[in-house]
Amino acid sequence: MTPETTEPNDSDTAWLTDQEQRAWRTHLDVSRLLMHQLERDLQPFGLTNNDYEILVNLSEAEDHRLRMSDLAAGTLQSKSRLSHQITRMENAGLVRRESCESDRRGLYAVLTDEGWETMRRVAPHHVASVRRHFIDLFAAEDLEALRVSLAPVAEHLRTQRGGL
Amino acid sequence: MTPETTEPNDSDTAWLTDQEQRAWRTHLDVSRLLMHQLERDLQPFGLTNNDYEILVNLSEAEDHRLRMSDLAAGTLQSKSRLSHQITRMENAGLVRRESCESDRRGLYAVLTDEGWETMRRVAPHHVASVRRHFIDLFAAEDLEALRVSLAPVAEHLRTQRGGL
DNA sequence: CCGTAAAAGTTGAATAGTTAATTAAATTGG
DNA sequence: CCAATTTAATTAACTATTCAACTTTTACGG
Q1: Is residue B38 one of the residues assigned to a domain?
Q2: Residue B20 at interface with chain A, using a CB cutoff of 8 Å
Q3: Dihedral (C-alpha) A122, B35, B77, B159: value to the nearest 10 degrees?
Q4: Do A99 and A159 sit in the same domain of this protein?
Q5: Which residues of B in 126-145 have their CB below 7 Å from strand C's atoms?
Q6: Handedness of CA B9, B12, B13, B17 (dihedral sign)
Q7: Where in the numbering of this chain does the HTH marR-type domain appear (chains A, B) (predicted)?
């Protein structure tokens, strides 16, 4: 038993300095407040953030369709969650499921016309929202600096994660 | 009616440039992956991120107690959500509710001994986790740059939000 | 004072998300 | 070729979050 270690804690991990704390807190606050705000801005269109991200992924995909697994990976969700999410969006008429020829276990999530139309209608407002509450609040060079220093973190985290 | 605007969209909001897109995506990915990772690292201790943040707030508070409203504001949650959250933590023995003399509508959330003990036990591991997956992945100057460019965003968002 | 409004907090029902188990199809290695 | 695994996806049961309605107490305006 080590008796009374001098200050921070009993492992070899240093406590956060004041600067680190503030940076960390700020990141945390921005994350949460931003998501809340974007969600609020989407509400008038009857979409959640999650709905929107599915729409984006499908819109950008070949033929407006993606395998469930790929869509789950693309949106960083578990398969289960995606399955529920797609069921809801199917009920809302935004997407439909289609079975896959080449692998009969598989399913595609496919954008419906209504889904595509919704996307086209909502996207400009969402982009405006992202600009207003995030992008336009940085100097261009700061935004690039942000991306550069965040990219390795994203990389690191992607390697860490087992199954969402 | 403006007929066929040339490219991006029909309002005066510009689409995101490639750089902006990448910065935005990266921020988004880091936010989500990081929260997942921290949550996973807390799991062995039987705590969620939310639990932990409540504990932090109460630990740092005068007398280990805070009014429900203040705690809700401090953790950026709705009152309803906090109320449920505190009920769960109360059942887990980490906090207790105490009524308030000066304002008989009000309640305090108070850290129990067990809550405090849990906090002291878990905090080093959580800090290590935050270091490993975030703080230590930046050069010190980059972290400060991050904070400086994010701070106004946080500020902006705080002014925007009505009632969570 | 008194009535009306605002604030603090909770509650219940509805929606969303997680976890673990399950089904069905494909892969793989003897 | 076929048993054992692995992969794709869903489902059921549980937990967490939101949303709207409600209770109690305080604050405000005349």
Answers
A1: no
A2: yes
A3: -60
A4: no
A5: none
A6: positive
A7: 20-155
Phi, psi of A71 (to 5 degrees): -65, -40
Residue A84 makes CB contacts below 8 A (sequence gap 6+) with none
With an 8 Å Cβ cutoff, are B143 and A31 in contact? no
The shortest CB-CB distance from A26 to any of B24, B31, B147 is to: B147
Number of domains making up chain A: 2
- pTM beyond 0.85, yes or no: yes
From first to last of its 164 residues, chain B has per-residue pLDDT tens of 444 443 444 567 889 999 999 999 999 999 999 999 999 999 999 999 999 999 999 999 999 999 999 999 999 999 999 999 999 999 999 999 999 999 999 999 999 999 999 999 999 999 999 999 999 999 999 999 999 999 999 999 999 877 77
On whether residue A68 sits in a domain, the answer given is yes
Residue of A nearest to B27 (CA): A150
Beta strand pairing status for B65-67 and B95-99? unpaired
What residue is closest to D11 (Cα–C1')? A80
Q: Give the range of the structural domain holding residue A142, as residue numbers without chain letter.
A: 133-163
Interface contact B124-A30, CB threshold 8 A: no
Q: How far is the CA of B161 from the C1' of D27 (A)?
A: 25
Q: What is the DSSP letter of A164?
A: -
Please give the span between the terminal C-alpha atoms of chain B, in angstroms, as a whole number: 36
- Residue A144 falls inside a structural domain: yes
Strand pairing partners for B98? Answer: B108
Could you identify the residue written with the tokens 């994350």? A31
